[in-house]
């Protein structure tokens, strides 16, 4: 006869039915009171060392990857190439170039932010920190009241408007850089008698606004005076009739294109060279809303200038 056991010692139970996590206290407040500060710091260092230590399997995997990529005996400056006797000429050249670059490179020359490739852009805000005078002006402007700031901005806007009106009336604002101060004291650079009173359109200042290389070309002997006079007269006639006109003319000789650019600059115009296959053309246009020719044509001024230089040399 089999008797049923009354005790429930070996009865299967569920942990969820018996144990409740709410009955436990998951706090180390009592434990922390017994642990000193030095022991706590030591435990942190020990735990960090255990977590950072790679396993043997990780070490073998890493070493195998390094060995497969660069080989066992790879020197610094070989660009990751494993040197052996069966290397081709391209690999040897690659190794030699890498070794040479490593030998010539210094630690200070290594730039990781790419600033040596990408040029730095100096904005108006960054100029405040570069120039102390501009920062003082900005602080002075910022310390003013709103009404004073508005008055300053309106004055600047009015100045720009007056400048535009002067340009519409035929006046052009020029800087000291536009006039060559080195040659202004010479006798050949004095204003011509009989010219107008506006110094902007006097032949001396118009000639000095030409690029230095082009001026040197015009100062040589045996320049084509006929071409300069005819082309200058054509430009004057065309843009006097219509200030928005354009001139597009084929010109194959580079020497004549150079003189055409000089004539255009003398007349406050812009000259560009356009390539159409083997053909070369020049395009002359006016960027201003008006056109006022210089008082003296360029050819006449060059002749007077040449005769003056000849007399001074004698």
From TrEMBL:
<dbReference type="InterPro" id="IPR039629">
    <property type="entry name" value="R3HDM4"/>
</dbReference>
<dbReference type="Pfam" id="PF13902">
    <property type="entry name" value="R3H-assoc"/>
</dbReference>
<feature type="domain" description="R3H-associated N-terminal">
    <location>
        <begin position="83"/>
        <end position="218"/>
    </location>
</feature>
<protein>
    <submittedName>
        <fullName>R3H-assoc domain-containing protein</fullName>
    </submittedName>
</protein>
<feature type="compositionally biased region" description="Acidic residues">
    <location>
        <begin position="176"/>
        <end position="189"/>
    </location>
</feature>
<dbReference type="InterPro" id="IPR025952">
    <property type="entry name" value="R3H-assoc_dom"/>
</dbReference>
<feature type="region of interest" description="Disordered">
    <location>
        <begin position="176"/>
        <end position="197"/>
    </location>
</feature>
